[in-house]
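Q: I'm teaching a short session on how sequence maps to structure, and I want students to see two examples side by side rather than one. Could you give me a first protein with its sequence written out and its structure tokens following it? Keep the formatting plain so it prints cleanly on a handout.
A: Of course. Example one:
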Amino acid sequence: MNQRNKTLIAKQISELALEALLFEAALSPKPGLVDPKSCGAHTDMNYSTFIDSSIALAPFLTKYVEVGLTHNGTPFGLFEKVRALGQLAEGAMLNKTKGINTHKGANFSFALLLSATGKTMQDKQLTIPFTPKDTSAIFAYVQQMTKGLLLNDFADLAQKKQLSYGEKLYLEHGIVGIRGEAELGYPALKDSALPFLRHSDTSDPQHLFLILLLHLMATIEDSNLINRGGIFAWRNVKKQSAELLQTLSVNSSEKELEDALTLFDQQLIQENLSPGGSADLIALSFFFGRLEGLF
């Protein structure tokens, strides 16, 4: 693969990632989350903040792919490269949003997955659209990149004086968060979200992804929810999301879905709860759906 092709591929793939971030931000109504009509349970950010954040991350999305396309070392070596790059991206994001954390989790995951995409394309000479097997190879490479991540990052937590909320959740409840999801090769995407998209009618992505959001809220370990409301609140949101899925489906009318999610949004706003982990997975699901040419 020559340099010109690498540049074109990095641009093409990173544009899909940026599109995914913008699609997630615009998706509405999202219970407890920021969208064009609601700030959800957030008082420090709005839809414009997410647009600014996405724009700040855009050049780094390209760099993540480029690093993967040119990497010739070990999976852990690639992880070290993109983690350092990801910290720069986070700084650019926080500078653009005046310190507001909009995409920290999404940036972490896109750094891993975009670099793994570039590396897998380099090794296997993949072309777009990807097959499900191609996508699985990327998740498998991320597993290699992040092997031992939890053990390394969370070593000696008991001796630390100041803990992040992710560290507190791990220490108190064994909640592994996005690090655990990455180390397992993103099972929420591989085993749940993407099979759902592959077997659904994708003619109305807005409707489809709102149903997928509920499905993710009903199933995943969302550290954002747990941090804001505790274990009980998280379990209650999971239960309510599952109950909504019993009455709603991809065949529900647009009005039925919008009304139900608007009410759920109002409830989560009152309870100060935001399923940010599910939102990040929506963006990642959209990205891989586009890579596979599903819509």
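Q: Perfect. Now a second example for contrast.
A: Example two:
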Amino acid sequence: MLQGLKTAASVDWSKWHVFWVDERCVPHSDPESNYGGAYSALLKDVPIPDSQIYAINDTLCSADTVSAAEAATDYEARLKGLPVEVLPVKDGLPVFDLLLLGFGPDGHICSLFPDHPLLTVTGPWILPIEDSPKPPPKRITFSLPVVNAAAHKCFVACGEGKAEMAAQILKTQSAEGAVPAALVTGNVSWIMDDAAASQLPSKM
């Protein structure tokens, strides 16, 4: 899929602005870095201007001075400093054109984990998490209101390992954050392979 995107003649890369719904507080060179993964898979091969790629400030994430709070504050300030032509704001929340979302086997999205206190935070756009149940423990993440304010949300699921949770998300509503992915509302679509969709009712 990515190869087709990279070579598509109709894509005007100059209009792309790329953000991260969450990021691990590690240097970009670390194998755990979401930015590093995106750069290797796509960004190094397409002509999006560097000034339109908004990665976490990894100088705040060196081994000796990791601060999720500082990284979250810095990232939010950068987003709030963008002109509305780049990032519109409505009712105090940023309106991203599209969020690509994955989910974990526990139903977490971004770095919003089941029954975690951050699920109920409604003020800041970007939240620090110091105790992620999935390593590394220090991360930053979009808040749930920011996720739901996006114009379009698209879940991407591939493989049999995603099948059970995908079915749970699509067939049930989450109770008090037990499945964070089920709390995503608004204009939501899914991209799934046959394996990930294998536990869905045929009528869905």
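Q: What should students look for in example two?
A: Point them to this: The chain has a mean pLDDT of 92. Also worth mentioning: Helices lie at 2-7, 34-41, 68-80, 144-149, 163-171.
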